[in-house]
Amino acid sequence: MERPQARAGDLSWRLSSHPITLLFFLGFRISSLLFYILGSVFTENFILVFIVTILLLAADFYYLKNIAGRRLVGLRWWNEVNTASGDSHWVFESQDRSGSAESGAPSQNATDKRFFWLALYAQPAWWVVLAIVSVVRLLNPIWLSLIVIALILTITNTLAFSRCDKFSQASSLASSAMYSGGMARSLAGGLFSRLFTRG
């Protein structure tokens, strides 16, 4: 019996353009959840579970925000604070990942995108499930503080990358409408040729 051929977009890390980045990304995403679950089941040492889970969540936050997001889907975000007024705003950046010859950037890998978005949305959902389980089991309320911190970190990254993706799609749609068909060049060329040929 033959194995089916793997296709682009399948959930197989071997199809990834950046398998090491993908494995570290998934490792950080899974490790904080697993350590919390196993720690709350097998030990009553809240301080150990709290510290290690926070360190894993911080590593996941940093790696996702600064490395995995940029390499797997070509998106980056950061928060800038205006020192004069104290106002903060989010800045979104996206690489041109269309794979066009003009951009020089490779096309985006469907497997990387699928893993990224699935893991990005799944982790906050799992933390919500763990919060519900924690409330139902009537664990010590201090365990909920760890879940709240986890939700804040994971939802921040999820919202930021979702906004960044929407910004990226809007800007790529606008640029493709203006430049891919040569519409802007032909309109401008037509206008200038009419102005200079009549005079």
Secondary structure layout:
Layout: H1 19-42, H2 46-73, E1 75-81, E2 88-94, H3 110-136, H4 142-180, H5 183-198
Antiparallel strand pairs: 1-2
Helix pairs in contact: 1-2, 1-3, 2-4, 3-4
Give me some keywords for this one.
5 helices, 2 strands, 67% helix, two-stranded antiparallel sheet, globular, mainly alpha, 199 residues
How is this structure best described in words?
There is one protein chain. This protein has five helices and two strands; from the N terminus they run H-H-E-E-H-H-H. It has a two-stranded antiparallel sheet. With 199 residues, the protein is mainly α.
Could you write a compact summary of the structure shown?
This protein has helices at 19-42, 46-73, 110-136, 142-180, 183-198, and strands spanning 75-81, 88-94. The protein has 199 residues and is mainly α. 67% of the residues lie in helices and 7% in strands.
Poorly predicted spans: 191-196
Strand ordering within the main sheet: 1-2
Radius of gyration: 23 Å
Beginning-to-end CA distance, first to last residue: 77 Å
Overall pLDDT, averaged? 81
The tally of strands reads: 2
Helix content: 55-70%
Q: Give the count of helical stretches.
A: 5
Shape: globular
